[in-house]
Write a structure and sequence with these properties.
Blueprint (H helix, E strand, L loop, with lengths): L5 E2 H9 L1 H9 L8 H19 L5 E2 L6 H14 L5 E8 L2 E11 L2 E7 L7 H16 L4 E9 L15 E5 L1 H8 L2 H13 L20 H10 L15 H9 L15 H12 L3 E2 L5 H4 L5 E9 L16 E12 L2 E8 L7 H12 L5 E3 L2 H14 L4 H9 L1 E3 H8 E2 L9 H8 L13 H12 L5 H29 L3
Parallel strand pairs: 1-4, 2-3, 5-6, 9-12, 12-13
Antiparallel strand pairs: 3-4, 4-5, 6-7, 8-14, 9-10, 10-11
Helix pairs in contact: 1-2, 1-7, 5-6, 13-14, 17-18
This protein binds iron/sulfur cluster.
């Protein structure tokens, strides 16, 4: 790319950090998008598709890879169909290219709408809209309003593919007005960044504001290699950000050096173990477990909260739909069985999920979970949804035993680095059980895999691969709980 050609996303990258833009153009091979970022992109595409679906007469400007063709198609569409919405309308001014999500005709011009998958307006959205509006106005196109459409979490999907109301349109004209005159400076400064040497910028808050910079690994490499403390202050469980900042300002970077008067009891425990390097397990850890009867059940859900709901009476992001559970059953001491539910049909999985769970869990025996608010919450929601199943589901909730508070109160290993998540605890006590060897290794990946399975373009072979990955992943979660319970009981 010549330094003259800039896109909206490149100028927004420059606004986040000049070094980011420079690296994006001159050292592209260093770019590393995290899985979370890839998932965010995917959700953005889904929301974009739904937004277009709200305007059935809309014209999509394709030609994504051919700028001249896209500019020409936009001109033609606006001239030939002045009353029809245009998706991805493409404009250029002073070498800056923008593609507008929705350009909606009005009596006297257009509404410019940027569509985002977030649930509110973020500061960088405002810059984004200002830049687009500036380019459009420089093309002498009358804009009656500049808007940002984001997900409205109060929307309830009632079926029939009807998504009217899923987006909330926020008018940004007033906040953008003072920015419009700054846009030429942004462009000039971005160009000047690109034509110079790599900017000197140290990693800081900007690296994750408002989204994670894809050059984080590159920029923080030297820190990891040199001054990174072994146990940073982030290891101090539930220490407030202001306290950590105050301690850093006093020169304390490593947990091991922080005076004890700044630490509560748990944090002092973490510090002691970080100093000695020796894990501690309280002899009381298993006290509440040893007397429990068999069979014992170890249960874990995987859920999805879609930005674009697909099942009736679900809300964007707000409804957690369980699509999978794994259950290890300890029929008698150390005698394990395993059951699983996974629905990849695309139909609402909840009824079948609840019915099979009731059948497998029976009516007696403790049901171990890790963080009961989550599992009990999903079970209670299914009870509300299916009144005929409610008594059995509520009875399951009464049998729940949460292993997380037992872990928090009784066990710490220096390599847990301040986290009692099952992913942090497991490697310290059962190194033979490895999430890192799985195709799907965390909850975010599981959700992304499920979304991909539901997508109509996903091949059968890929669906099969992802389904197998989900099975392995969820199964490991409950096996991890089994090992944890045994560990607490000294077994
Ligand atoms: S990681 Fe941080 S310092 Fe490096 S380019 Fe990105 S935002 Fe700038």
């Amino acid at each position: 790319m010549s330094c003259r050609g800039l896109s909206k996303s490149r100028i927004i990258a420059w606004k986040q950090c000049p070094k980011r833009l420079w690296l994006q153009i001159h050292r592209r091979e260093l770019l590393e998008f995290s899985d979370d970022t890839e998932h965010r992109f995917q959700i953005g595409y889904e929301v974009g598709e739904v937004a277009q679906g709200l305007y059935p007469s809309g014209i999509l400007i394709e030609d994504e890879d051919d700028l001249s063709a896209a500019l020409m198609s936009t001109k033609t569409a606006m001239a030939d169909y002045p009353n029809r919405p245009i998706f991805e309308a493409t404009f250029q001014h002073d070498g800056v290219l923008v593609r507008v999500d929705l350009l909606l005709p009005t009596d006297a011009g257009y509404r410019m709408v940027e569509v985002k998958s977030s649930t509110s307006v973020k500061p960088y959205h405002i810059d984004d809209c200002a830049l687009q509006a500036w380019v459009i106005r420089q093309n002498n196109i009358p804009l009656n309003s500049i808007e940002l459409a984001h997900i409205d979490t109060s929307f309830i999907f009632l079926g029939d593919g009807n998504y009217q109301g899923i987006l909330r349109f926020e008018k940004l004209d007033d906040v953008i007005a003072p920015l419009l005159e700054l846009v030429p400076n942004w462009i000039q400064e971005a160009r000047s960044t690109l034509s110079g040497d790599i900017p000197t910028v140290e990693p800081g808050a900007q690296c994750s504001d408002s989204f994670e910079c894809p050059f984080t690994a590159y920029c923080t490499q030297h820190i990891k290699e040199s001054v990174q403390p072994r146990y940073s202050l982030d290891v101090l469980y539930r220490m407030q950000t202001e306290t950590k900042e105050m301690l850093r300002a006093k020169g304390f970077q490593d947990v091991c050096h922080v005076p004890s008067e700044f630490l509560n009891e748990t944090q002092q425990w973490i510090q002691r173990i970080s100093l000695t390097g020796v894990a501690e397990l309280s002899p009381n850890a298993g006290v509440s477990l040893v007397g429990l009867t068999y069979p014992r059940y170890y249960l874990d859900f995987e859920t999805i909260n879609l930005a674009v709901p697909r099942w009736i009476n679900t809300r964007p992001y707000a409804t957690q739909v369980p699509f999978q559970w794994s259950c290890h059953i300890e029929k008698s001491h150390h005698q394990l069985g395993h059951e699983m539910f996974l629905d990849v049909s695309g139909n609402d999985p909840r009824r079948h999920c609840a019915e099979l769970m009731i059948e497998v869990l029976g009516t007696e025996g403790p049901v171990f979970v890790y963080y009961q608010a989550f599992e009990k919450g999903r079970i209670a929601e299914m009870a509300e949804l299916y009144p005929d199943l409610a008594p059995a589901l509520h009875a399951i909730n009464l049998r729940v035993v949460d292993l997380l508070p037992i872990a928090r109160a009784n066990y710490y290993h220096p390599e847990m680095k301040g986290s009692w998540s099952i992913k942090a605890v497991l490697p310290t006590l059962a190194p033979d059980l490895r999430y890192d060897l799985l195709v799907i290794g965390n909850g975010g990946d599981a959700q992304a895999a499920y979304r991909e399975i539901l997508h109509t373009n996903t091949s059968d072979a890929r669906k099969q691969e992802l389904t197998e990955g989900l099975r392995e992943y969820c199964k490991l979660d409950t096996l991890a709980m089994v090992r944890l319970a045994w560990f607490f009981q000294g077994e």
